[in-house]
Design brief:
This protein is of the alpha/beta class. 36% of the residues lie in helices and 22% in strands. The chain folds into two domains: 222 residues, 3-Layer(aba) Sandwich (Aldehyde Dehydrogenase, Chain A, domain 1), CATH 3.40.605.10; 199 residues, 3-Layer(aba) Sandwich (Aldehyde Dehydrogenase, Chain A, domain 2). Helix 3 runs antiparallel to helix 7.
Length: 532
């Protein structure tokens, strides 16, 4: 796969369908149901898609977002606190049906924003346009599935149960204020995978969009404002240290939903006053391995490993980030892996079939190049043609082999199109690798025999949270639990698990002395909690 010398010659060569015709009101933010305008200079959003105008290469400015500070952060916190009202606010006291009705109103507004959202995401983070559309559609399905599952949970909770001499009813209740911080790679889906269940369970929300992808959520401000009571959803933007630290230091947040690095997660939780009151739902680093055994279908393994390692440039926590191949088939597998990579299309995200696009993070190409240099200095080499070449912000996928534990690439999450490969001769080498790893999200096993699969499954089950057989690592389908061990996650997300994660079980219990008032309250219909 050849790198183009000029990824884009001029802005006017961008196909008309993929130009931004209506720029976002990025300097707005949302507090207490009001869309407010930031009067300051703001923070520029520069696209990673390089434009060549009159011989000058420059990043296209998509827009600006507010550089808010402590005052606005505490105003958002106060709005969320007032809306929650210590559990007695309008939103937490609403019935399940009323909350669902508000969310369905939001979805009605949201549907019309599909293309606008996808264009913003494409220009902000260089995700292929069709993948942006898929993310939007997947998010709508996630909302629909969450509503259906909540109705089922509510129905299940409507029964009166007995234990010994007691009767009781159990329901799930909100926890309080949720601080929601999604990642740049899926700024809508990953954020809404936390925001939607938190809302449905009656919590109030403060959203801090990611630095890259900060403008993507702007089109939803009016829908939030018109669909939910004042203060239920608040969206603020700016430097994380300036606006998140005072919120966490207040001790008033009950749930932290965060996807990002464990370093930032530690900073957030270390700043929290009253640590044991905070529930954390964290998606952190992963170093998902693939294990290729000598009896594996090598062509299948190569295809799955390339897809798993390089979808959206490898910028997914679920990406395959270290491949282990048995020494007896290593040469053949590496040839197949290189051939699969050579077929990938690189270019601009609106191009049909494009797989490799520019990287949005500052200095990311330089950092990946440093990982290659370190590995080469310690005995590895780039085995695929053109691997590691850089053009502007586009990094040609590189396969490094043989990778050893002394190399930095074996220890860090590269989060980019760089694939380390190691060989093994005995399963004990894999066990040692798993025991030493700080991460434990997923793994993939490629084999055709229970002889290899069974013992490794039993080991992996105590080191990772999902084991994929002859397939790449992934999050979907959303009905399945999504979590991790070690430094990879806290809490569990899925359509059902997320509703549980953002709520707590409460119950009303009565023995013989309390049964009369229990049933009279039930029959009165005056309690939102105790009801059929």
């Amino acid at each position: 796969m050849a790198i183009r010398q000029s990824l884009l010659t001029a802005n006017n060569l961008v196909p008309a369908d993929y130009r931004i015709k209506e720029y976002p009101e990025g300097m707005n933010y949302l507090i207490n149901g009001e869309i407010r305008s930031y009067p300051g200079k703001g923070i520029e959003v520069i696209s990673p898609l390089i434009v060549n105008e009159s011989g000058k290469k420059t990043g296209f400015m998509v827009g600006k977002y507010p550089d808010l500070g402590q005052d606005e952060a505490l105003a958002a916190l106060a709005a969320a606190e007032q809306a929650y009202g210590s559990g007695m606010g309008e939103w937490p006291q609403m019935s399940i049906d009323q909350r669902i009705e508000a969310l369905e109103k939001f979805v009605w507004f949201m549907r019309s924003m599909e293309r606008k959202y996808a264009l913003l995401e494409m220009w902000e983070i260089a995700k292929p346009f069709n993948s942006c559309l898929d993310e939007f559609k997947r998010t709508l399905k996630y909302i629909q599935d969450s509503v259906e599952r909540l109705r089922e949970l509510d129905q299940e909770s409507s029964t009166i149960s007995r234990a010994e001499n007691f009767i009781y009813q159990v329901r799930r209740c909100p926890l309080g204020i949720c601080l929601c911080m999604g990642p740049f790679n899926y700024p809508l889906n990953e954020t809404f995978a936390m925001l939607i269940p938190a809302l449905l369970m009656g919590n109030t929300i403060i959203v801090k969009p990611p630095r890259y992808g900060a403008l993507c959520l702007v089109p939803f401000f009016e829908a939030f404002s018109r669909s939910f009571p004042r203060g239920v959803v608040n969206v603020i933007n700016g430097d994380g240290a300036a606006i998140i630290s005072p919120i966490m230091e207040s001790g008033k947040v009950s749930i932290l939903g965060f996807t990002g690095s464990s370093r930032v997660a530690r900073l957030l939780t270390d700043n929290y006053e009253g640590n044991h009151r905070l529930r954390t739902i964290l998606g952190l680093e992963a170093k998902n391995p693939a294990f290729i055994f000598p009896d594996a279908d090598l062509e299948l393994a190569a295809r799955e490993c390339v897809d798993g390692a390089l979808e959206f440039n490898g910028q997914r926590c679920t990406s395959l980030k270290h491949i282990w191949v048995h020494e007896n088939v290593a040469d053949r597998f590496l040839d197949l892996l290189s051939s699969e990579i050579a077929r990938l299309k690189c270019g601009m995200p609106w191009e049909e079939g494009v797989r490799i696009t520019p990287l949005c993070e500052d200095n990311k190409c330089e950092w990946l190049s440093e990982l290659i240099e370190d590995a080469e200095h310690k005995g590895a080499r780039v085995i695929n043609s053109g691997g590691g070449l850089v053009e502007n912000k586009l990094f040609h996928p590189a396969v490094l082999y043989p990778v050893s534990k002394e190399m930095k690439i074996s220890q860090v999450e590269q989060f980019g199109p760089l694939i380390p490969v190691s060989s093994f001769s005995d399963s004990n080498e894999l066990i040692a690798y798993l025991v030493d790893s700080d991460y434990g999200q997923q793994a993939s096993i490629f084999t055709s025999s229970p002889q290899y699969a069974a013992p490794l499954i039993d080991i992996l089950a105590n080191h990772v949270s999902r084991i994929n057989l002859n397939a790449q690592c992934r999050r979907s389908p959303d009905e399945l639990p999504f979590t991790g061990r070690k430094n990879s996650a806290e809490g569990t997300l899925s359509v059902t698990d997320a509703l549980r994660s953002f709520s707590i079980r409460s119950l009303v219990v009565a023995n013989e002395q309390g049964k009369e008032v229990f049933f009279r309250t039930l029959e009165s219909g005056r309690s939102q909690f105790l009801r059929i």
